[in-house]
Amino acid sequence: MSAPKNTNDSQSYRQILKSTTLVGGSSMINVGFSIVRNKAMALLLGPEGIGIMALYSSIVDISQTVAGLGISASGVRQIAAAGGGNEHEILRVVTALRWASLFLGIAGGLLFLAFSVQIAGFTFGNDEHASGVMILSLAVFLQVVAGGRAAVIQGTRDISSLARMSVLAGFFSLVIGLPLIYFFGARGIAPALVAAAFSSFATSWWFSRQIKVSLGSMSAAKVVQEIGALFKLGVVFMMSGFLTMGSAYAIRLIISSESGIHAAGLYQAAWALGGLYASFILQAMGTDFYPRLTAVAFDSVECNRLVNEQAEISMLLAGPGLIGTLTLAPLVITLFYSADFRAAVDVLRWICLGMMLRIVAWPIGFIVLARGAKAIFFWTEIAATAIHVGLAWLLVQMFGVAGAGFAFFGLYVWHSILVYWIARRLTDFRWSAQNLRLILVYLPVSALVFGAFEILPLWQATIFGLAMATLAGLYSLRVLAGLLPQDMFPAAIRPLIQSIRSA
User: Fold this and answer.
1) Average of pLDDT values for 323-343?
2) Helix residue ranges per DSSP H, 328-401
3) What mean pLDDT value characterizes the chain?
4) Is 206 in a helix, a strand, or coil?
5) How far is CA 2 from CA 347, 435, 479, 496, in A?
6) Do 429 and 287 form a contact (C-beta atoms < 8 A)?
7) Contact, 356 vs 442, CB < 8 A?
8) Phi/psi at 346 (nearest 5 deg)?
9) What is the CB neighbour count within 10 angstroms for residue 486?
10) How many angstroms separate the CA atoms of 269 and 123, rounded?
11) Coil, strand or helix at 218
12) What distance in Å separates the CA atoms of residue 193 and residue 177, rounded to the nearest whole number?
């Protein structure tokens, strides 16, 4: 077992696990909502309906990203950089953020409405879905305003409020959206997405009320100055988001044009399930880790230490689950959707491999964000988009919808190498010895399990995959037992943790 960690390291690991548990706990509750929602919508709409929903969602995502001009992400950075003790500076950013997000939400929603017929024609090849796209203008407005409110909570690292927001938004979007699909079928998809956006808006407004802002405390000129500061970095974030959402949109268009909307529904199902387990870790990185890293971004030693610790905890928590999802892909597809989606199994396995690399690469990528290296960030996103869409265009023609999953894996093979090279030059980053061991355990094991399903009978590959997932889980538990204080574990398993430590 590794040597005992010092007090500062233990506190840092405690903070990482605490934030991951809070955000992850809310994500796991939302997983329960997702099981109900996905299952019901799969039965009510089928793969083609899920494909329409995926295209609608991509349209909203890319539109609200452009309309928001990245001020939510830049607002998080500005608030985190101001520090908890500079209340006056924080209030200035909050005031500017709220006014800017309201204005941009209104402008974005109106522009989306004005061009909704053209957007529908470009996406679906006709104006059959024009009325649904018009309705989505409300979702664009609500998401932009909600993003500004949520950024305030994230920037101040109020993790518990973010977790509660996530759960409540997921709950209300389910109880409002599902009846709309039930009674109106495919015509209820757009109103259901608006209901989900309204749920996010309402919960973000409620939890951000505690940060009081006096509208008379800043002159109009000062508000404009602060908004300008948000825009300077925000435009880079916006371009990054546009490229990310745009590539998702483009890939769904490629699939639907090559294999039909039915195939786009299969890809959406695999994409949602592939990211389901990893999402709570990735969300925790953006929610708590990013503000913490920003505060020490120019202290290279401390910055590298935080990245290594975040990566270590992330791999320990995500590795066994992703191996398990890869192994049980047919069961997971049927459980969350229906037997009509079984053709998505191969896509899901490729996405699981890509997600394993994503878990490894993401903590390093935050170094670029925390340092505000706008040019590096922008051009890496441009390159990632070109590679992802280019691979998808080539591989979907060769292998059908499974090629889109292969393209995602190929993207993160390239991206993992690139961000490590960049981090070496920015902060002289190097993997810790423990992280190198984890990488040399989880990546080869994932590849072996994937390969087993290509060369072995299904039942033999499944037994092998379950055995590997179990061993990976025990290994993760053993390492976590050495990293964290005993009181961080649930009381029911503390005797087991003590036994592991003694061993």
Assistant:
1) 88
2) 329-336, 345-370, 374-399
3) 82
4) helix
5) 37, 12, 8, 18
6) no
7) yes
8) -65, -40
9) 11
10) 19
11) coil
12) 7
Alpha-carbon span 306 to 427, nearest angstrom:
12
Instruction: Residue count of the chain, please give it.
Output: 503
8 A C-beta contact, residue 390 and residue 357: no
Q: Report how far Cα 371 is from the mean position of its chain's Cα atoms.
A: 21
Q: By CB neighbour count within 10 A (0-12 exposed, 13-18 middle, 19+ buried), where does 440 fall?
A: exposed
Q: Which residues contact 403 (CB under 8 A, 6 or more apart)?
A: 392, 394, 395, 396, 397
For residue 485, what are its two tokens? 């204080």
Each residue's pLDDT tens digit, 115-131: 999 999 988 887 888 89
Provide the residue type at 171 as one letter.
F
Q: pTM here?
A: 0.75
**Mean pLDDT for the stretch of residues 244-251:** 87
Structure token digits, residue 366: 């935050």
Contact 378, 236 (CB under 8 A): yes
* 164 has pLDDT over 50: yes
Q: Which residue shows structure tokens 């190198």?
A: 436
60, 211, 329, 469, 493 from 466: Cα distances, Å: 38, 48, 12, 5, 22
Contacts of 269 (CB under 8 A, 6+ apart): 38, 42, 47, 50, 333, 336, 337, 341, 344, 348
Task: Give the Cα separation of 245 and 381 in Å (integer).
Answer: 11
Task: Give the side-chain half-sphere CA count within 13 A for 432.
Answer: 18
The answer to whether the beta carbons of residues 500 and 476 sit under 8 Å apart is no
Q: Which pair of tokens denotes residue 306? A: 């935080």
Residue that the structure tokens 């996103």 belong to: 381
pLDDT at residue 15, as a whole number: 58
DSSP 373-385: -HHHHHHHHHHHH
Classify each residue of 329-352 as buried b or exposed e, where b means 16 or more C-beta atoms within 10 Å of its C-beta: bbebbbebbbebbebbbbbbbbbb
Give the C-alpha separation, 194 to 141, whole Å: 10
- Which H helix or E strand runs over 10? helix 7-68
Rounded Cα distance between 185 and 170, Å, is 20
Kindly report the three-state secondary structure assignment for every residue of 100-145. Answer: HHHHHHHHHHHHHHHCHHHHHHHHHCCCCCHHHHHHHHHHHHHHHH
Rounded distance between C-alpha atoms, residue 233 and residue 77, angstroms:
9
Tokens 């203008």 correspond to 137
Segment 263-276 shows an average pLDDT of 86
Most confident of 21-25, 434-438, 483-487: 434-438
How far is it between the farthest Cα atoms of the chain? 71
Structure tokens at 202: 């309402």
CA distance 319 to 354: 12
pLDDT at site 493: 59
Q: Give the count of beta carbons closer than 10 Å to the beta carbon of residue 384.
A: 20
